[in-house]
Design goal:
By secondary structure, the protein is mainly α. The chain contains 2 helices and no strands.
Length: 90
């Protein structure tokens, strides 16, 4: 047996290792790009949530918006023409 056949993987081993390294670099770059997108979306959602919650009233009190038509504030919902809280009933 020759000494080169026992200790060296040869050109095939080099090619396999090189292809594996290139694939891993591509995978790491893709992962980094996706993590940046997730972080950017997370920060944007936090800013939108803070803007929604921090709606200031006339005295500086924080006023949370009510969902439309829940009737808790005595307002009219969709289809509630007479203001009795029952939409479309007569």
């Amino acid at each position: 047996m020759a000494a080169t056949s026992l200790g060296s993987p040869g050109i095939a081993g080099f090619i396999v290792t090189f292809v594996l390294a290139v694939a891993l670099i591509g995978l790491f770059l893709s992962l980094t790009r996706h993590l940046r997108i997730v972080e950017r979306r997370s920060r944007q959602r936090e800013w939108e949530d803070e803007a929604d919650v921090a709606v200031q009233g006339p005295e500086g009190d924080v006023v949370l918006p009510l969902p439309p038509g829940d009737g808790a504030a005595g307002g009219r919902g969709e289809g509630d023409k007479d203001g009795d809280g029952e939409a479309g009933r007569r």
